[in-house]
Amino acid sequence: MAASSQPKFALPEPKPDQPYIQVSALEAGLLQLIHTRFIAGSKPGEFTMCPSLAFFLRHSTSKEHLVFDLGIRRDLAIHPPAVQKVIANRVITTPQSIEESLRKGGMDPADIKTVIVSHLHYDHIGEASSFPNATFIMGADAEDLLVHGYPSNPVAEVLEGAIPLARSRFLSSEFTTSIGPFPRAYDYFNDGSLYIIDAPGHLPGHINLLARTDATGSWIYLAGDSAHDLRLLTGERDVATWHNDAGHLVCVHTDRERAVEHIARVRELLGMPRVHVLLAHDAAWYEANQGGNAFFPGAIPPRM
């Protein structure tokens, strides 16, 4: 992908013996993305079958590993009525769950100690009980969604207990640095290898990851649901809005203005050399890489 203009920002150069992160994609379900809900100017009936990607990350020197997002659980009936309304008559399937993807690559989900959750929508939270020894890391505003979820709040889209609060860590004061176009970042390993990025706009608590993928200057940006189509990143298309049953203008992003601002920040990465931007629902990337070495136990190759 190429941006239309030179980037205004740069990412830090590697240090000597720079640690980095090996990033592997994980199969975690498929869903039908209805274009009119995401991409302005779409025609009724247009859709894309796309993945809900999750990722396995391994630190190059410590070998510490973690998971980013949990994809789609098979038992969709557990989700709140507000979610059932959204997914009704939509094709959603999980041929291979994240648990099966990990086991296929030789990793027991019980051995995962850290899960970073981009946000709490149904297609990213999977089945947290499959990770009994993990601490779950989320943005600070995700806590309120869990505490006041369904059924306490009958109209909530987030299920109480979807992520265990007792084993959750909510980030806020940790965002003490800036990197590239992003003003709020957390250097997770404190060595420049992995940054958790505050990514506002989509859903409260939404976070992304920026990881070095080799010791010489390659990066990957795991953008979660910052955008749902590459054309939104390039600026070819705009974020959709529509009128709901009550006649109110709504958007898939809870704060459209902040989401558009964040998309513009992610867009800056497109013009940077050796930077790979990957959306959680990137159908084109998935079609090109499905079943290949980019998936665990293989790894996504560094952008050269």
Detailed description of the structure:
This protein has 304 residues and is an alpha+beta fold. It contains seven helices and 17 strands. The model has no long low-confidence stretch (mean pLDDT 95).
State the gist of this model.
Its cofactor is Zn(2+). Helices cover 16% and strands 24% of the residues.
What is the alpha-carbon Rg in Å?
Answer: 18 Å
CATH architectural arrangement: 4-Layer Sandwich
Based on secondary structure, the structural category is: alpha+beta
Number of helices: 7
Oligomer: single chain
Low-confidence stretches: none
Q: How many E strands?
A: 17
Give the amount of beta strand, in percent. Answer: 15-25%
Mean pLDDT, rounded to whole units?
A: 95
Q: What level of helicity do the residues show?
A: 10-25%
- 3D shape: globular
Largest sheet strand order: 1-4-5-7-8-9
Assigned CATH class: Alpha Beta
Number of domains: 1
CATH topology descriptor: Metallo-beta-lactamase, Chain A
Give the terminus-to-terminus CA distance. 13 Å
The CATH superfamily is identified as Ribonuclease Z/Hydroxyacylglutathione hydrolase-like
Largest sheet: 6 strands, mixed
Topology of this protein?
Layout: E1 21-26, E2 30-34, E3 47-51, E4 54-59, E5 65-68, H1 81-87, E6 92-93, H2 98-104, E7 114-116, H3 122-125, E8 135-139, H4 142-147, E9 168-171, E10 177-179, E11 182-187, E12 194-198, E13 207-212, E14 219-222, H5 230-234, E15 242-243, E16 249-250, H6 256-267, E17 275-278, H7 283-289
Parallel strand pairs: 5-7, 7-8, 8-9, 14-17
Antiparallel strand pairs: 1-4, 2-3, 2-6, 4-5, 10-11, 11-12, 12-13, 13-14, 15-16
